[in-house]
């Protein structure tokens, strides 16, 4: 049986030493390459930064020239050459202040000598005319960081300028135009709805512009004549405004519009009670048609009322002619009713006698004598009614004429006494023979 033996492979010492030397050379080479590249990278970064600063500085100079030109267009004489802006001269040196303040805080330097102003009319006029212009030139001083860009700009210190122009603000020459005078007529100036009116202009002046306001929220322009319809009632103010280069003038007129008048009312009223003993309290109730707007009551005793449904007490005993007059926009109407105030009447008691109680037909006269009580007060409407029992009778007589019966038999004579205090009836029976 064969035996197997194991051996560990061992790298020769010479191979390890060769690998270590190669790694050392690679690290050294990288350091050398970084040392060569880093300065170039820093120069490029600085150059890019310089370009950004340069671009921003050019914008600052442009802005300074533009803002100074804008100021000069309004105040062309507010500039002192070669003089810095101070608190003491900021009003007389406004253009310089505007230019130097705009450039302040940037990478560029603008000195008072770097700002120049020139007008199309020299010197710059204090009162510009239409069409005159002004130009402002601003020069800025800039220093580069890197010498690389200095090669292209002729050195690290460089300058650049910007010029901006603007038209001088000129006040237009005033043209003398007489102011207008507004005037117009309106026809008609009153009437019933719907009311159509016409306005006719009589204004004076040249180049007029017209504005009409009708007073109901609507407007119209132009000279006219114009028409307008008012659909609602009221008082409306028409306003005419005329204007031209000489000014504005306003005038007004009023139009009164009324609703058509309604039909006149018809007076009617009810009252309760219509009569009674004095003092008599009566309630009146208006029943008029046609929508009255006012009521006038005359109670015929010196007193009046204006409420629609009054009450009134009549004191004296007599008849009262109560009159009601109702009114609206269309007219009025009157009606009269009578109220009777009576005395206090006692309750009547019917009493009478007959003589004789027996008699012959066609011969005997039966005499009646009235003895009723409670029937003596005047004004109580006292009435006596007799019934002789044979189909005949008589009223309003206290003692009627004697009565003769034509046929035999028993007859009942009745007397009814009545007044405002009540009614009473009594009777007697008589016998008639052959």
Describe the secondary structure blueprint for this structure:
Layout: H1 13-74, H2 94-103, E1 115-119, E2 133-143, H3 147-153, E3 157-167, E4 184-187, E5 190-192, E6 195-201, E7 209-213, E8 219-221, E9 226-230, E10 234-244, E11 247-258, E12 269-272, E13 275-277, E14 280-286, E15 294-298, E16 304-305, E17 311-314, E18 318-328, E19 331-342, E20 352-355, E21 358-360, E22 367-370, E23 383-387, E24 393-395, E25 409-419, E26 422-433
Helix pairs in contact: 1-2
What does this structure look like?
The model is unreliable at 1-10 (pLDDT under 50). The protein is an alpha+beta fold and 434 residues long. The chain folds into four domains: 32-167, no CATH class; 184-258, Immunoglobulins (Immunoglobulin-like); 269-342, Immunoglobulins (Immunoglobulin-like), CATH 2.60.40.10; 352-433, Immunoglobulin-like (Sandwich), CATH 2.60.40. The radius of gyration is 64 Å and the shape is rod-shaped. The protein is 18% helix and 38% strand. The strands form seven sheets. The protein has a five-stranded mixed beta sheet with strand order 5-11-10-7-8, with no helix packed on it.
Roughly how many Å apart are the termini? Answer: 203 Å
How do the SSEs run, as a string of H and E?
Answer: HHEEHEEEEEEEEEEEEEEEEEEEEEEEE
Tally of separate domains: 4
**Low-confidence parts, pLDDT < 50 over ≥5 residues?**
1-10
How many individual β-strands?
26
Percentage of residues in strands: 35-45%
Q: Cα-atom Rg, whole angstroms?
A: 64 Å
Shape: rod-shaped
Q: Which strand order spans the largest sheet, edge to edge or round the barrel?
A: 5-11-10-7-8
Structural category is: alpha+beta
Largest sheet: number of strands, sense, barrel closure:
5 strands, mixed
What is the averaged pLDDT score? 88
- Approximate helicity band: 10-25%
Number of helices: 3
């Amino acid at each position: 049986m064969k035996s197997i033996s194991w051996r560990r492979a061992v790298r020769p010492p010479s191979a390890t030493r060769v690998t270590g030397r190669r790694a050392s050379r690679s690290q050294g080479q990288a350091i050398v390459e970084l040392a060569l590249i880093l300065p170039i990278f820093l120069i490029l970064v600085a150059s890019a930064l310089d370009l950004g600063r340069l671009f921003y500085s050019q914008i600052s100079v442009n802005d300074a020239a533009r803002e100074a030109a804008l100021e000069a267009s309004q105040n062309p004489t507010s500039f002192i050459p070669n003089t810095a802006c101070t608190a003491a001269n900021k009003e007389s040196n406004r253009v310089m202040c505007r230019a130097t303040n705009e450039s302040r805080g940037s990478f560029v330097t603008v000195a008072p000598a770097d700002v120049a102003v020139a007008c199309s009319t020299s010197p710059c006029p204090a009162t510009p005319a239409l069409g005159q212009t002004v130009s402002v030139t601003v020069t800025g001083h800039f220093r580069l960081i890197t010498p690389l860009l200095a090669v292209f700009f002729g050195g690290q210190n460089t300058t650049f300028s910007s010029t901006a122009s603007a038209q001088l603000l000129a006040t237009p020459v005033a043209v003398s135009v007489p102011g207008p005078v507004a005037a117009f007529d309106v026809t008609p100036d009153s009437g019933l709805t719907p009311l159509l009116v016409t306005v006719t202009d009589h204004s004076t002046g040249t180049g007029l512009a017209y504005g009409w306001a009708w007073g109901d929220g609507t407007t119209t322009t132009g000279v006219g004549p114009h028409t307008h319809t008012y659909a609602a009632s009221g008082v409306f103010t028409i306003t005419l405004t005329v204007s031209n280069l000489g000014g504005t003038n306003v005038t007004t007129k009023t139009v009164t519009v009324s609703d058509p008048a309604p039909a006149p009312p018809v007076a009617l009223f009810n009252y309760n009670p219509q009569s009674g003993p004095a003092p008599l309290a009566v309630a009146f109730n208006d029943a008029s048609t046609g929508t009255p707007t006012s009521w006038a009551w005359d109670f015929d005793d010196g007193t009046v009322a204006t409420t629609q449904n009054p009450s009134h007490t009549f004191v004296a005993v007599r008849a009262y002619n109560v009159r009601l007059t109702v009114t609206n926009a269309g007219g009025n109407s009157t009606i009269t009713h009578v109220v009777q105030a009576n005395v206090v009447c006692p309750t009547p008691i019917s009493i009478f006698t007959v003589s004789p109680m027996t008699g012959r037909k066609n011969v005997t006269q039966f005499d009646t004598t009235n003895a009723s009580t409670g029937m003596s007060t005047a004004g109580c409407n006292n009435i006596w009614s007799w019934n002789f029992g044979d189909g005949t009778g008589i009223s309003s007589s206290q003692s009627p004429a004697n009565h003769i019966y034509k046929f035999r038999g028993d007859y009942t004579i009745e007397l009814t006494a009545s007044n405002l205090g009540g009614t009473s009836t009594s009777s007697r029976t008589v016998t008639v023979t052959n």
